[in-house]
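Field: sequence (string)
Field: structure_tokens (string)

Example rows 1 and 2, in order.
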Amino acid sequence: MNPLPPQIVAFTRSQTCLVACDFDGTLSPLVTDPAAAMPAAGAIAVLSALASLRDTHVAIISGRGLDDLRARLTGLGESVALVGSHGAEESGGSGVELPLAALELRSRLIEALDRISRTIPGTQVERKPVSAALHFREASKAGAADAYEQALAVAHSEPGARLRLGSKVVEMLVIDADKGTALRRLAHHLNATSIVFVGDDVTDEDAFGVLGPADAGVKVGDGPTLAALRVDSPAEVVEMLEAITLERAARVGAMPAVPIQHHSLLSDQRTVALVTPDARITWLCLPRIDSGSVFAELLDTGGSAGGAFAVNHAGGEAPLEQVYDGDSFVLTTRWPGFTVTDYMDCSGGRAWQRAGRCDLVRVLEGRGSVRVSFAPRLDFGRVGTRILVHPDGLEVEGQSDPIVLFSPGVEWTIRDDNGHQTAEATIELSGTARVLEIRSGTWNLRPQVTSEPDRRAQTRQFWSGWARALIVPPLKGHLVRRSALVLKALCHGPSGAFAAAATTSLPEHIGGIRNWDYRFCWPRDAALSAAALVRLGNTGHALKLLDWLLGVVDKCESPDRLRPIYTVTGGMLGSEGEISGLMGYAGSQPVRIGNAAANQVQLDVFAPVVDLVALLAERGAPISPDHWRLVRSMLHAVEARWAEPDHGIWEIRGPKQHHVHSKVMCWHAVTRGLVVEEFVTGRRTAHYDRLREEIASDILINGWNPELNSFTIAFGVPSLDAASLAVGLTGLLPPDDPRFIATIERVQQTLQCAGGVYRYHADDGLPGEEGTFLLCTAWLIESLVLIGRIAEARELFERYAALAGPTGLLAEENDPTTQRALGNFPQAYSHLGLINCALALSAAGERD
């Protein structure tokens, strides 16, 4: 295959590639004794090299048993998936536990084949975990024919035997398994967008048969086949894999992606920006966090449509460090000889003013030659962007809201760039600070009345003064304080609503489609964020959020119709859409704007709101009649709808179910509502006591699965969900209840891996597998603290805290294999989870 055929070249350019091969006759030359088979020269090295490439997966799918396969592929490493017994055994497992009937069938088959082998020279029986096989490669022609006929007769005499015919071998499986099913299952798990399968045997035709138009099948040797391509031998397979590796490396090498957790955040509580470790602004939406983008290179890895604002050392030197100025979002990136300080101006009460006017300030200080590139791309690159040069800066054309770059004394060069324009300049620093200032909502290119140092000082004080008033626990105090600052940064100052995260479409699976827009306000997430701040002594954000929620509820046709998601100004979301012009983060497409989950039913939304009011009341905050009115409306909503199925906290885009977590949160809403009622009225309504008992009874009867010894994801669904830990975290069950303890242990056994906890393993209808979910890890930590297993909780918390990036920010998820952050960033859930865990462990006596 030199050069590679067009089908293979197209495969190497896919987002997420899967190369899967058979072993015998494909990676290993066929030999007369199956026990003597070994990989062809160079096979191990090329498979390892191919598997090391980004978004490139390698698997070996063989009829051999998994342990046998491992023994022949020593040195391959864990990056290559091994699938044995025609798909019945997979990497990570220790084998297959056969039911008694299958074990008895396997024994009968082995006994029958042994009788044949004893009478026909040159034959031998291979015992496999889920099958028995008769090999007749060394038999005479007549003996081989006789062995073949007798083996077929054995297979036909046992109705449970699944016949597989190979190259001079008859194999009988005792369970259903085939390479085609295994290949499709693996491709779905890895979210592979294109597959190459290489095989030589009749059993490999099952795999060739499931390949689609974007895939390629390669047959080794002669014989009829469904594969479109051929090579002659395992040696040529190795050569082909080497060529695929080179072609794929050239492709993914052109798509570098800064790790998500290495970005830093800027905020003025109306919008946010993300900055890479080398001071490149790759994410900024204006005028609000949920508006169209001005810079979106974050979601355009390897492309040019996203846009960025870059400052680089003219000589190409890398920066030395990037740090926040104390407890603020004033960010300094330091090179040898000069620094760049970035912040969004929060002076003069801007954070509470209506979104529209925003100033992002970049201050260059020191000495040296600096190269600057200003490449705005309006509305995710969908609007052609033109740049006009003025004496004191640049004007961005392309939309009605004005945007200028104040940059006095800079000589800009404008170049055309794929339908847009980019401004470039080289600035010589000589000890005097140079200011570059993006101003949105104005055409003003005159100097500000207040000096830049004063605005920087006021911005620093805006954040650090607020942080000083927090009551921070003794465990991980610096990360707790930074987490609280992140929650404040995600709060929309003018309204009080909290965004769930700063970004859209950062993937939960690299190269996959699990990409969602989180730049909106989930009342649930917002209430949990505000509650975490209340626990640190700050009640102001919670009270303002409740004012926002009152306004939202007052607009609802009835309280039980409260939607799961709103814009940060309290409006309805538009339709979910896709941006086709952006390549996605690390090739992860589609890039989405809007969120269709806004139209779902999520019955857990009411409890966090009620709990927040109860928490404020317990902390002595001024609870007003309007707050009690809000709580009553939430209780009415629960009473009206608690018995219905819903889509659940994880917003699975499938049929509604009776989610255990949602039911528990309905119970929690009523329980905490009674607390608020006692604070406000001095009494408890007996009707609500009866309601909470009714809900609790339903959960304990229908949510508990005695076979799994755990509460599950939904009534009657035998799958685990970390959210089921709410049965103890809310107090529905006391910490010493055996059912809560059993659920904790089942979550640990089923959903926990090194360093984190998955949400669930149930099929959610989407390809690919996400990472561990940080909030779920936090729930497990809090649960372990509740039942007194402090050492376990502390160990897991240390791993949780270690996931924070260099400037202390956390994403939604984590890939436990690569330790790369996944999902939108920074994520409110992850930071509030860290706060709650630090408080729980500190209360249990833990210290730094």
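Row 2 begins here:
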Amino acid sequence: MQGITSFDGLSSGLNTTQIVDTLIQLQRRNAVLLEQEQASKTNIVTSLNALQAKIVALNAEAAQLGRKGTWEAASIKLSDDKALSATAAGRVAAGSYDLKVLSLARNHQLASQGYSDQSLSSFGTGSITLGVGAASLKTIIIDTTNNSLVGIKKAINDAKAGVTASIINDGSSSRPYRLILTAEKTGLANSISVTSALSGGTNPNFNTASFDVPERLTKAVTSTSAITLASAASFTGSTNKTYTFTIAGAGLQTIGSDTITINWSDGTNSGSIVATQADTEVELVGAGSDGLKLSFGSGKLNSSDQFQVQTFAPVLQKASDAKISVGSTGGSGSPITVTSATNTFAEAIGGLSLTVKKETPTGEFINITTDVDIDGIKSKINNFIARYNDVVKFVDEQNTYNKKEKSSGVLFGDSTLQSVQTSIRNSLGNKVKGLTGKYTQLFSVGIRTGLDGKLSLKDSARLDEALRNNLDEVINLFADSGTSIGSGVEYVASTAQSKAGEEYDVNVTSAAAKGQYLSSGFADPSLTPITLTSSNNRIKLSVNGIDSNDIVLTANTYNSSTQLITELQQKIDADEKIGKLGMSVSWVDNGSGTGYIKLESSTFGSNSRVNTISSVSSSALANLALATGSSIGGQDVAGTINGELADGSGQILTGKEKNKTTAGLKVRVTLTSLQLIDGAEASITFSRGVGSRMGDLLGSISQSGGGLLDRKIKGYESQVTHLKERVIEIDKRLASRRQDLLKRFYDMEETLGQLNSEGTFLSGQINNLSTMFSRQR
């Protein structure tokens, strides 16, 4: 049945809709009160969200100040940033340095002789052996499936030998395609060695300089003399260049009967040769000739004919190290030259990483000025102050009551607001526990709280002085720090659960150890030399779960333990899989002319281990007594901090999560098992600086999901949802009530209508009877 909408005054003349709506409005008074409460709580949610956003912003700035890296940032100024760049991972000392870029590090690059076709299988079959520096040689098999220039290029690249192969077209008309080999790493130590052993076809030559065959540039129709390289021509130069030859004289000239002058130039040098007889070698003389000899066949040459001869020097680019000089000759200074295999210098200037880009012109210097980034630090402090004052301003506005207008902030009198305000002020103003000396509170670096509760940097000069002269103490004021009494134990980090300001004993029950592999004992090579050949010079290792490639030792007779250990270390360091893991190789002398090889991982802990892999061909394991050696696993440090058990991982001891005083406290133990004593090895004291302390507090207040404000907001949101549901329920009930009232008034109007109709009928009947009676009289 459809609801009744409107039937005002059908019989009664009453405005029934208005009467019903008035009755419903009177009955909806509770819903109106609930809506008002819902709006009030929604406003509270909005205000709490605004407060939370401001505290999150403050927390971000506090976290910045709580990180040591913020305070150790460097200011670096360069007089020429196009010649080099400089970065710092942390603090650098204030200073000014002059340097020159003497040379850049370059990749070794070789080229083969030219070929007329890059896809033709014109090469022989066999092998090409590549090496880069001290890395193990790679042997590449060339067969009938890949004995083209393209095939050899792909085979070299697939071998991953530290060399990239490519093909270039040099533009010459006869043999333009050359195979180019480029070392993947820069530096003098990364020179390429190539040995090509192909038979049954041509061999790519990366070692011998030579002349290319003469090429005609312009030729008259009547010119018939064939121009060739003399059989004795041998390129003695080292630079790729092009000789251009022009026939002098006038008109057509005959080899053998005419004296023909031919002018030449290599772009720098020039000269002339004379051809008087056919098929006779004619040698260039003078600067730039470099052993070039030509032969002219019988026939004719025409004046203005031109031809060229290109030289081929296989070394396109020599491997070179980067070199810089640090220091100035001014003031009787004597600069020092620093060398690097790459264009990056990690320790040429303390704390800086330099990357060179171009060489410095003669007579010029590049100046580098370093300092603590005081402007950057002060900017971050001012950001923190601004965000703190935003919170203070918001809280003050919420706590304001206007007597005249009888209005207040939405959160006026809210206990959570008062709690947040008090906690933040206390965290900011309290002395940092565990610190001693001059800098233990913010006012000591010129930061003050005014009468209005807001922060300001009142004394900028005091902060500047502290940053320049007492940076470590300023860092400790804002960030976490710790000190140790006792060598071999140092503070690393802590969490909000760690209790600061106390002195905690550290008792180490087990020292961390590295994984090792020890060979069996054998005679010192100085007494019994070890000979390795291509049939027994390979080993394969597993370090911390990572397997090496086949490590190929140089075929040689090793006459000392030093020679053998150096070879092992170099070849292991050059391996692309384990070379960067820092494994060390050493010889342990047993005395009496014997000893053993020790392979040791660079890492500590239970995951540290070294093993040999026996499945390697041409194995040297037996020759080096590694086949019957023993693997000793690494060990995690173990012990207690403040009498509470700690978890060990490598050299790091960490207080267990549920510890009362040391939860999350981390210390590094560098002691060996021989250095452990009964009782505590050291004591640790640590503090939580203002930035860290504020960060922990603000995080607990604003954390999404579990923070104080988030819980409060969710509580109010739940109430708002409940109120909304109650209003909906009331409105639903009143809507039904309204329909019921309208139904009743409708029924009343219908009844009144029927009564009115009957009354009208009766009135008519009575009038009729009255008329009839009147006539009868």
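free_text_note (row 2): Residues 514-632 form one domain.
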